[in-house]
Amino acid sequence: MAIVNILIVGAGRAGMSFAAALGSGSGHDVTVIHHDELGGVIDVDLMLLCVRDDAIEETARRAVVATNTVVAHVAGSRGLEVLAGHVRVGSIHPLVTMPDARIGAQRLRGGVFAVEGDVLLFELVESLGGRVITVPPDRRVLYHATAAAAANHLVALMGHVEALASASGLHLEDFLALSRQALDDVARVGPPRALTGPASRGDVTTIDAHRGSLPSDERATYAVLAERARRLAEEAVT
């Protein structure tokens, strides 16, 4: 595609990751500003809002853009209604984690994006070598909850593992290979068949023993996960 003139509003991890991926990574003309630097009439091909989800609507309302400028956001939980008042609108949410701009940019190239709205955003994903998925507008929040479970909750789970490892006199690193093997198995055969351990065998005695050994502030988390594992084991035999 032709070079796109892009103004990114927001200089956090998402904004700087997109800037690196779309600028030096894909050859587009990219400028980054902070949200409080908006002023005058913005005449670019694309204004990409990389601000907090709850600040998108207000930021979009303050922005005065040329008629042909596409106004888009990168939030997974918001639809196009937060951009009301602009002629060309869209959203482009990447299914990648962006811990910093360098790693974020690497993952955006070839990543998966939920795209809605203006055709320019679909072309932008193509320029990144990415893949587009389509999310029905009425399932947008559920989609974002799924993304949070896939990434944020997985990290929270590893925090749980770290706490249990520490209580055992061990370290998180001692269990990471096991976690990677389990995730590889999920990718290969799906969650029900990847499940091993006492839940997969219906070994309630061992699970109860586990609960009794846990630090008190980790028992509720373990109980919820053990119940979900039990349900998963049932799915494996149906």
Main sheet? 7 strands, mixed
- Global shape: elongated
Note the run of SSEs as H and E: EHEEEHEEEHEHEHHHHHH
> Structural class from helices and strands?
alpha/beta
Please tell me about this protein's structure:
The chain has helices at residues 13-22, 56-62, 101-108, 119-127, 140-167, 173-189, 191-194, 198-201, 204-213, 219-237, and strands at residues 5-9, 29-33, 41-42, 46-49, 64-65, 70-73, 88-94, 112-117, 131-133. The mean pLDDT is 96. It has a seven-stranded mixed β-sheet, sandwiched between helices. It has a two-stranded parallel ribbon with strand order 3-5. The chain folds into two domains: 5-135, NAD(P)-binding Rossmann-like Domain (Rossmann fold), CATH 3.40.50; 140-237, N-(1-d-carboxylethyl)-l-norvaline Dehydrogenase, domain 2 (Orthogonal Bundle). Strand 8 (112-117), helix 4 and strand 9 form a beta-alpha-beta unit. The protein contains ten helices and nine strands. By secondary structure, it is an alpha/beta fold.
Detail the topology: elements first, then pairings:
Blueprint: E1 5-9, H1 13-22, E2 29-33, E3 41-42, E4 46-49, H2 56-62, E5 64-65, E6 70-73, E7 88-94, H3 101-108, E8 112-117, H4 119-127, E9 131-133, H5 140-167, H6 173-189, H7 191-194, H8 198-201, H9 204-213, H10 219-237
Helix pairs in contact: 1-3
Keywords:
238 residues; Rossmann fold; N-(1-d-carboxylethyl)-l-norvaline Dehydrogenase, domain 2; seven-stranded mixed beta sheet
